Amino acid sequence: MKSKATFLGTIEDVNGASVRILLSNESLSGLVYVDGQGYRIGQIGTFIKIPIGFTLLYGIISQVGASSVPENRIDQQPYGNRWMTVQLVGEGSANGNFQRGISQYPTIGDEAHLVSERDLTKIYGKVTDVNYIKIGNIASSESIPALLDIDKLITRHSTIVGSTGSGKSNTVTALLKAINSNNYPKAKIILIDPHSEYHTALEDFSKVYSLDGVNKLKIPYWCLSYNELALILFDKKQSIDSPQDLRIQQEILKQKITISQDLKSGSIPENQITVNSPIPFDLKQIWYDLYIETFATVNTKGDFDTIAYKRDGQGVELKGNKETLELPEFIPPGTGGSSPFIFTTNKLLSSYLNKLRGKLLDNRVDFIFDPEDFDGVTKDLDDLLNEWVNHDKPITILDLGGVPFDTMDLAVGLISRLTFETMFWGRFRVKLIFMGTTKKALII
Q: Least CB-packed of 36, 76, 193, 362 within 10 Å?
């Protein structure tokens, strides 16, 4: 076989799946023609094949030149630059299809050959396979389509990674267009877009929910666990609950138990409700009640029903407003033993209440803390998921552009958890997969 035009050299070093090839002095450099097709010799990222009996081992060139020479042979090589390092990736028979993984390894002296376009066709699949979608063409051979097995894509987690500018977003866009341009008319895809980069590229395929668009993005805060909520509101990073956390949790649980009898989905037994149950509660009401409890003065010592509010020019008590987060105002405590009196000297919640009000006033997180009619009674989580997927477009883009950096991870996590739990509990009615990249998440 050394007389063949595809011959490159021989195996001289094997280290697991990494092998080093000594190029033949007779093998051509530059461009060689096989079956009328031109190939570049020794290109990084291209395939080589190693015939072993009736089996062909396939590898990818990862290094070329003097740096590929084995250390113990550097002084012995008159042609120190004629070496290649190859990573073995799969195998196949002479007439069969390619499969990943290695069941046997080459030995010293085995031949290495250039991979032709015919071999590449075996490696990358067949265009006639009905379960494949085309997302482009192979860079090393533009006549061969780049195909993905849609069954394996849907039944496994997938990740698209690369450095900035390498084409991750273009790859995701091509993938989504390929899925929705073939025989999958019922495919439903949720695309989480942190950088507002997909709504133009997928304009004809998608419905967009954003912070300031026509379709408002809403993710109710009451879906969060307490630790997730406290991380946003109070920058709580430790797992141990402080006395402030326990007091806030007490009020949350009280409200959840109260509303649990009026839920759209039906009542829930009290003994099954925890502070982390996805049951609505009014965070503004909790702030308002605890603020009064912490800072109020009272006309009768110890009597919370005699709060000493200040009055405006018309004599109206300045009770504040929990919806607008306007602070109530109280008459300063009297001197000595005169009224009004401080209701409580315990100001433990002061810091928490100030942080809570500041976060509720931040319009950048209104999509979480202003759920509008997603109150569990008028609209529940099934209505939210129904809005996201039950429309005439195959793709739903959840545009998180403008979301604060410190909230982004939680927003993505919450969306992912909602859709995953929908998949799990409704797995006999809907099929979803999760797919992520270093900067974005895709749920199909």
A: 36
